[in-house]
Amino acid sequence: QVQLVESGGGLVQPGGSLRLSCVVSGIASINAMGWYRQAPGKERELVADITSGGSTNYADSVKGRFTISRANAKNTVYLQMNGLKPEDTAVYYCHALRVGFGPKRYDYWGQGTQVTVSS
Questions:
Q1: How far apart are CA 54 and CA 46, in angstroms?
Q2: Phi-psi domain of 75 (left: phi exceeds 0; alpha: psi -120 through 50; beta: other)
Q3: What DSSP assignment string belongs to 74-119?
Q4: Closest to 73 measured CA to CA, from 11, 8, 113, 23
Q5: Alpha-carbon 102 to chain mean position
Q6: Could you read off the pLDDT of 77-111 as tens digits, one per residue?
Q7: Beta carbons of 48 and 60 less than 8 angstroms apart
Q8: What is the H or E stretch that residue 52 is in?
């Protein structure tokens, strides 16, 4: 069974920083990992992702502030969040993508960790 466990969320002042971690177990290979977030009343949105080759993508709203990184051997992904804003408040979810043969696609999700940015 595949498990994704996030940690590192919490309450932080505007302009502060947090570092989220996600540890993946139960899967041998992963094509990409990423972070999504969902605020109350809003749909889940992509924050950042990283491929097995190291290519990264970021939502426009977090470019220059957030950095995603990965420890491939341990299937661990991090999200360093700097210059946090109140609008960053959301539940952050770790995501893993495994692509199989042909059209096969498998998506795995963590339980989420709360990030609250407030003064």
A1: 17
A2: left
A3: GTEEEEEE-S--GGG-EEEEEEEEEE-STT-EEEEE---EEEEE--
A4: 23
A5: 26
A6: 999 999 999 999 999 999 999 998 889 999 999 99
A7: no
A8: none
Q: Which tokens go with 37?
A: 């977030």
Residue 12 · residue 117 · CB < 8 Å: yes
Q: Which of 11, 17, 20, 50 is nearest to 33 (CA)?
A: 50
d(CA 42, CA 40): 6
- pLDDT tens sequence across 29-61: 899 999 999 999 999 999 999 998 899 999 999
Helix, strand or coil, per DSSP, at residue 43:
coil
Long-range contacts of 69-74 (CB under 8 A, 24+ apart): 70/33, 74/23
